[in-house]
Amino acid sequence: MTPPDAGLSPGELLPAGRRFRIVLVLGLLTALGPLTIDMYLPSLPAITADLHTTAAAVQLTLTGTLVGLAFGQLLVGPLSDAFGRRWPLLGGIAVHMLASVFCVIAPNVAVLGTLRVLQGLGAAAAAVVAMAMVRDLFTDNAAARLFSRLMLVVGVAPILAPTIGGLVLNWTSWRGVFVVLTVVAVTISAVSALVLPETLPPAARRSGGVLGTVRDYGRLFTDRVYVGLILVAGLAMAALFAYVSGSSYVFQDGYGMSEQQFALIFAGGAVGLIGATQFNVRLLRRWSPQQIMSASLVAGLVFGLVFLVTAITGAGGLAGILIPLWLVLATVGLAMPNAPALALSRHGEAAGTAAALLGAVQFGVGALAAPLVGVLGVGEVAMAVVVFGGMLAATLVCFLVVQPHRLPAHTPAAAVAAVH
Which of 79, 134, 259, 339 is most buried, with most CB under 10 Å away? Predict the structure, then answer.
């Protein structure tokens, strides 16, 4: 007689209350990166004035965060495969916490940028370990449902972060934003230490040292489809970060909006992103991940071209900018879950390392896109050029390198993945 719990993943065997607490903490870990990136966006013009620097220099502090997120995942992913999940996680959050404290007293933009790199390193540990823990605890449909919820967190956090940042600026200066981030890091560290178990048993850990890690990364780079898929995810992320890095200047400086008005505009784009990621779950009942990814990239390319034209011509005023921009973000919300899911389904034997390389490419390409908007002029045309360029490159890589029509129709991994 088959036991009633046969075939269940380790997470499903946990008591419901404990499972709920673990999932809640995983959601907090997933939120740390978006909060770190987005909470200080309304204060970018204020930082520019207070530190007597340029918009491009301040945008480099955002780039520093993305560089830290990219490099940190490459470092923490293999460490978590070799030494377990808890200690790399707690160590990374501690780095984030200390960097946040020193950001409060940063005397110039160079110091602030360096500290933002360290914040990114710490947030990377939370992102990659959260995904690895999901892979440890849940499989198949259970993992798909949890990844869907984590995608919701990834979407909600960018809505709340600029709003919180705008509220903080009502009471204090931009430095107060980093006080709030310090409190967030302390809270997440405490609940992670209390609630999260070690999910990778010693017998399942990979013992190859530095050479083993290099071999794992080398093996990933030999998979043309995997490399193409992570590039698609990264280039779609570039379009998103062009919006993230340029929007405060476009809407606050260009259109004269207050911090609170900008937060509402930013929230509108995030709503489209969230809605698309959750609608993706319904679409997957009828279409494959590769079909949804391909269609969303083509649609995003078209909307990106419309955005570029309206930005150059000024047609439609503010609405002519916002509507195609929000539609691009919605298509990114469809592409981002499916490209990573397809990529990770190919390398389940080294989930932490594969997820780390995926996250590194996403944030690494985003790190290049963020300052590019400033270099091109910080206005709506500069933002539109980078957004359209990201969607064009992602579409070309999808159809020329990945060739989704040649992929098998069934994907064994969850088709809804968390974006780091």
Answer: 339
